[in-house]
Amino acid sequence: MKILVIGNGGREHALAWKLAAEPGVNEVIVAPGSDAIGREPRVRCVPGVDPLDRAAVVAVARREAAELVIIGPEAPLAARVADALIEAGFAVFGPTAAAARIESSKAFCHEIATAAGVRMARAGAFHDADEAVAFASDLAAMGRGVVVKADGLMAGKGVTVCDTLAEAERAIGDLAAGVRAETAGDRPWVVVEERLTGREASLIAICDGRSAVPLPMARDHKRLLDGDRGPNTGGMGAYSPLPELSDEAAEPLLTAFHRPIVAELARRGTPFRGALYAGLMLTEDGPVLLECNARFGDPETQAVLPRLAVALGPMLLAAARGDLGPALAASGLPGGRLPTLPGASVAIVLAAAGYPDAPRSGDRIDGLDEAAASGALVFHSGTRRDADGSVRTAGGRVLSVVGRGRDLAAASAAAERAADLIHAEGLQRRHDIGAGGVISGLAMPMRAAAR
To answer: Which of 58, 196, 364, 401 has the fewest CB atoms within 10 Å, i.e. is most exposed?
Structure first.
C-alpha cells in the first residue's frame, strides 16, 4: 500500500513513522512534510504543496497513485480537501467539511451533542456580544465559572478559562473585535460555557461512518507552564495511559459519546469517516464532553501511536472505505479494542521562544542526535534544516520528545532525560507531563456520561 499523509507537523511525523514501519506499506508520502519527516525510512516528502489547495492535493494523490490519503490537520478538512479527494475517487481517512463542522464550529458541536443526547457543559452560542456577556453573567451569578470559546478554528488557542465575570467580558470583547469582523451574517462567533472541574482525558476513535474503534486513552496539557498555569496553547505535552482510567474504560465512553455523535451525523447525511477526538472532563458526576476534534490530536498522537501493538494502516483504509469490520476480523480483533504494548509513553513538547503569542524562528537547535540516541522518539513539529545541516526553529511548537517506560514515572523520566539534551535559545517546555503517579481512590462513574 502507498499512503499519502497531508500535513507537516509532529502529528504527521508520528503517523509517517508508525505507518512506514508496518508490513504491507511500500511507501509513505507526506505533503508538504518536512526535512525531518523525510528522513524516516520508507518516507518521502513532497515540499511546496499547500495543504489547503484542493487541486494541488488531488494532483499529488493522482501522481503518486495513493491508495489511502490521511489528512492530518483540521484546516484542510474545513477547506473541503477531503471532499475533493473523495470526488476524485480516493479512499480518504478524514471527514468531509460538513462532518468536520463538529470541530470547525463549537456551536455546531453543541447542536449535534444535544440532538444525540450527549452530555456537555451548559452553554450558549452568540453573535451578539451583549447577549454573550448576559449569559456569562447568569453563570457567574450561579457561582459557576465561565469559559469563552471562539466558534471557529483557532489552532487550540481560542479558549479563555475565566475566573471572574470581568475576565469573561474582556475575552468576549476581544473576540468581538476580531472574530466577528470576519464572520458574515448572523452565524455565532462565540460560545460561552459553564466551567467544569475535574481532570481532562482525550479519547480518539477510528470511525467508518457507522462504527467507532478506540485508540488508547491519553491526556494532554494545554497550558504553557507547569501546574497548568499560563496561557492556553495547542498542547504542551501528553501521556498515555491514564493512571485513573484504564484503556478498557474506553468502551462505555464510546457508547456515551462517539457512537451517538457518529449516528447523528450519519442521520443528517454527513457520515463521519476519520478520527473523532473527544475531549472529556472527568467530573465527580461522571465524564462530560468538552469538545470534539475531527482528526488525530496533537500531541496526543505522538504519545498514543508508540503504544499500539497492531498495524494502523489497514484500520484507516477500512474506515476510509466505510467498513471497519473486515479489517478488525483480519487482525483478530472482532471485539474492536486495539491491543497495546506494555508500559506507558510521555510526549513533551518543546516550543519556540515567544510561543504562543509571537514564536521566534531561526534559533539553532542542538542535541537532537543525542536525544534520539538516548532511546527517545523525536517528532518534528516546526523545524527547518539549513544548507549547512543545522536544524533551526520554524514554528511555535518545535518538537515532541517521547519517552517510553514500564510505567508513567519511567516514561516521564525518559522523556525528561532526552529533552534535557536538546538546546535552543529561549526553548520552552513543561516539566510535569506525566508526573504525579497514580491517583488513588478516584473512580469515574460511567452512568452519568450521557443523558
So the answer is: 364
In one-letter notation, the amino acid at residue 328 is L
- Measured CA to CA, the distance from residue 173 to residue 193 in angstroms comes to 16
How far is C-alpha 267 from the geometric centre of its chain's CA atoms?
25
Mean pLDDT in order along the chain per 10 residues (451 residues) = 97 98 96 98 98 98 98 97 98 98 96 97 93 94 90 79 92 80 68 94 97 96 94 94 91 96 98 98 95 97 97 96 89 81 97 96 98 98 96 98 97 98 98 67 34 24
Question: Minimal CA–CA distance to 31: which of 50, 53, 14, 13?
Answer: 50
- Inter-CA distances, 14 with 32, 149, 298, 335, Å: 15, 29, 10, 26
Question: If you search the block for the grid coordinates 489552532, which residue do you land on?
Answer: 155
Q: Quick check: 88 and 82 in contact, CB under 8 A? A: no
CA 372 to the chain's CA centroid? 24
CB 377 within 8 A of CB 15: no
279-301: b (≥16 Cβ within 10 Å) or e = bbbbbeebbbbbbbbbbbbbbbb
Q: Could you tell me if 105 and 151 are in contact, meaning their C-beta atoms sit under 8 angstroms apart?
A: yes
- State whether residue 408 is helix, strand or coil: helix
pTM > 0.85: yes
* Phi and psi at residue 92, to the nearest 5°: -120, 125
Q: Are 302 and 11 a contacting pair, CB within 8 Å? A: yes
User: 99: closest CA among 114, 88, 83, 116?
Assistant: 83
pLDDT digits 0-9 by tens, 174-231: 888 876 455 545 688 999 999 999 999 999 999 999 999 999 999 999 999 999 999 8
- Cell 498555569, located at residue: 229
